[in-house]
Give the backbone structure.
Amino acid sequence: MLKGLGNLGGLGDMAKMMQAAKDMQSKMADLQQDLAKIVVIGEAGAGLVKARATAKGEVTGLDIDPSILIPSEKEVIEDLILAAIRDAQSRAVARSQQEMQRLMAEMGLPADMKLPF
């Protein structure tokens, strides 16, 4: 009737694949939680303005050196703040990719494999 099924060995392989997929899903969820806890710091103006962000890219704080808080320098300060935020977000992306590659290596997958996460 169903030739080739024999001892149903193919179903065991399918079960292993399903378990591996569940394990990967769990590890990815853990990674997302970890990324929310990792803090990166972006800088601008040789450290006069610093932005803190999570590795998920959420900006969580700013540190502005009081020496640059001069009203006539408002536009410069705004530019430095934006530059620090962009630097923090760039570092967040890099850290996120680094953590993803680490996880892929731990799972025995190619580091450059693209996942929909």
